[in-house]
Amino acid sequence: MNIREDVRSEFIMVLVIIVVLNLQSCGKYDEGPAISLKSTTKRLAQTWDLAEIDGETPIEDLFDSYSYFGTTIDVNDVDIEFDFQDDGDFEIDASYNVTIESTYYSYYGGSYTYSYDYQLDINIDGDWEFSSDKEDIEINFDDNDYGYYSSDFEKRDYKILKLTSKELKLEADNGAEWTFES
Fold first, then answer.
1. pLDDT, tens digit, for every residue of 113-160?
2. What is the DSSP code string of 64-118?
3. What pLDDT is recorded for position 82?
4. Tell me, what's the pLDDT at 152?
5. Phi, psi at residue 179, to the nearest 5°?
């Protein structure tokens, strides 16, 4: 081996090390990915199922049974989807089952219990866009038939912690981490 080949080999090795170190530090999001061949819009534009909030899974665990004066309310079969379209449209589809069971006691003795279930489906439309550095998502909600959502959910900003084709992790304004799966 001559000196020219030694220098060339060392140069290639130094170049590889520089490239590897730069790739490790170029990740846009706190939890990855370090590099992706798909654009951020292509990775985000799909339907995402909410898998957990602040590590609580399944989602039903967030909705504990609530009891008062002989009435118990249970929420189960919770399904929440965020649908990001590549044209900027956005939609939340949420559904869950509510079971209410009440026991009434008669003044003269005895009691009776009734129970009923109902399915609640909510659909909220809006639009989304990235911040200029693509580290945040801004969601603007349209007016909807659920008037009490309009003022509460007019606009929301989420910090992107992780965005791959299969996993999306967002941090809400209140610090809660929302993890979605595709």
1. 888 898 888 888 899 999 999 999 999 988 665 544 445 567 889 999
2. --EEETTEEEEEEEEEEEEEE-TTSEEEEEEEEEEEEEEEEE-TTS-EEEEEEEE
3. 94
4. 56
5. -110, 125
pTM for the predicted model, two decimal places = 0.72
Q: Which phi and psi (to 5°) does residue 104 adopt?
A: -115, 140
Whose structure tokens read 């559904």?
95
Q: 168, exposed or middle or buried, with CB in 10 Å at 0-12, 13-18, 19+?
A: buried
Provide long-range contacts, Cβ within 8 A and 24+ apart, for 135-139.
Answer: 135/28, 135/29, 135/159, 135/160, 136/160, 137/44, 137/170, 139/90
Name residues of the chain where pLDDT drops below 50.
21, 23-25, 147-150
3 state DSSP class of 39: coil
Ordered structural domains, the chain, with CATH? 3-59+80-94+124-181 (2.40.128.280)
Which pLDDT score, from 0 to 100, does residue 2 have?
65
CA distance 6 to 162: 42
Using a 10 angstrom Cβ sphere, with 0-12 exposed, 13-18 middle and 19 or more buried, the burial of residue 48 is buried
**CA angle centred on 54, ends 34 and 42, rounded to 5°:** 40
